[in-house]
Amino acid sequence: MAPLADGGWGWSSQQASFPYMITIIMFSVGVLIGGRVQDKIGPRWVTTVGGAMVGLGMIISGLVGENHFGIVMGYGVVTGLGIGFGYGSVLPASLKWFHAGKKGLIGGLVLGGFGLASVHYAFITAGLLERFGISDTMLYIGIAVTVISVIIAQFVKNPSPEFVPAPPKKAKQAAAKKPAVDVNWNEMLKTRRFYMIFVLFVFTCTMGLMFIGNMATIARDQAGIENAAILISVVAVMNALGRVIAGQTSDRIGRNNTLLIIIVLQMLNMVGFIFYNNVFLITFGFIMVGLCFGGFLALFPAVTADQYGLKNYGVNYGIVYLAFGVGGVAAPMVAAYLYDLHGTFRYTYIICAVITACMIGLNFFLKRDIDKAEALKAEASEA
């Protein structure tokens, strides 16, 4: 939405950012709705509708011109819901094709592809904007997305009920000892660990979006970088890479252990941002932000699947993913307010460092609760 404020339609920063904020909210709602529906009817039609809605929202945005309400409804509501439908149906289907011992890796690969979209879209959009302007760019992208996504959606499906994925060699013995679990959303909400997972996710999204939403300003103020386009693309790539690395690592050393490592790295990085004052250090800092934020986003789908199973995964993870919407609303507003008040992001860095410290403690209690729940399941399966 930056072109709307910078030399495009002359919108204020607040006007230009509002459709994006609505997109984040509707995206998280769409994950819940799409996940719930795909649990009932399967992922193909939900993905098809989602892809069509993404394109339709862009087409509407292209046709309404400078109408702010039209952009909010088209891009914010319709496209946001469509993205959520696709996200909420493709991920559960992907996990069902592979053994539980690969949840982290498969989730990381799927979400890594999702994260990489911003890289090629950035270059395509920049070229189209320069040649055709804002409205026509939205229109052309909308048409292309509709055609491509609807076609690809026809290949998204669940395995047959009889399908049993082969376990990884190292996972065979562990999988045999671990009892299966399938919990519906009502039962999930009765567990303490759900609320710990949800709060951890809120903290994660708040911290990550505080930085990503203000990346260009931070780069300009602290390192004199006037054009942050390349830096934004680097962060997008690191975000995708972090999802794959964290997912695979968590399959090997456990979700909580991987989460702890990422939290500590991010906390050190938050403190470091207070002192990052040149191009090299700012670039390093944002590379770490991308890797850690991507790693966080890969872990929560796997944790949800571990704790509550795949049968009702769509709606269960959809509820967990509402945390992204909460963080998406709060984060940019808090960071922008503190910057306007003090003229620096120093206080944002301090808040983020405190958040990560709280996350370390919460992760400890989550691990203890998970260990206790698994012990109870093991006793019940032996009885």
Topology:
Blueprint: H1 2-8, H2 13-41, H3 43-63, H4 68-96, H5 103-132, H6 134-153, H7 172-177, H8 185-188, H9 192-212, H10 215-223, H11 229-253, H12 255-273, H13 279-308, H14 313-342, H15 346-382
Helix pairs in contact: 1-2, 2-3, 2-4, 2-14, 3-4, 3-6, 4-5, 4-14, 5-6, 5-11, 5-13, 9-13, 9-14, 9-15, 10-13, 11-12, 11-13, 12-13, 12-15, 13-14
Architecture overview:
- There is one protein chain.
- With 383 residues, this protein is mostly helical.
- It has helices at 2-8, 13-41, 43-63, 68-96, 103-132, 134-153, 172-177, 185-188, 192-212, 215-223, 229-253, 255-273, 279-308, 313-342, 346-382.
- The protein folds into two domains: 1-171, Growth Hormone, Chain: A (Up-down Bundle), CATH 1.20.1250; 179-383, Growth Hormone, Chain: A, CATH 1.20.1250.
- It has 15 helices and no strands.
Biggest sheet overview: none
Query: Rg from C-alpha positions?
Result: 21 Å
> Cα distance, first to last residue?
58 Å
Q: Regions with pLDDT < 50 over 5+ consecutive residues?
A: 172-177
Arithmetic mean of pLDDT: 85
Query: Which structural class is indicated by helix and strand composition?
Result: mainly alpha
Strand and helix order: HHHHHHHHHHHHHHH
Q: How would you name the CATH homologous superfamily of the largest domain?
A: MFS general substrate transporter like domains
Report the helical percentage: over 70%
The global form is globular
Integer tally of domains: 2
Number of helices: 15
Named CATH topology of the largest domain? Growth Hormone, Chain: A
**What is the name of the CATH architecture of the largest domain?**
Up-down Bundle
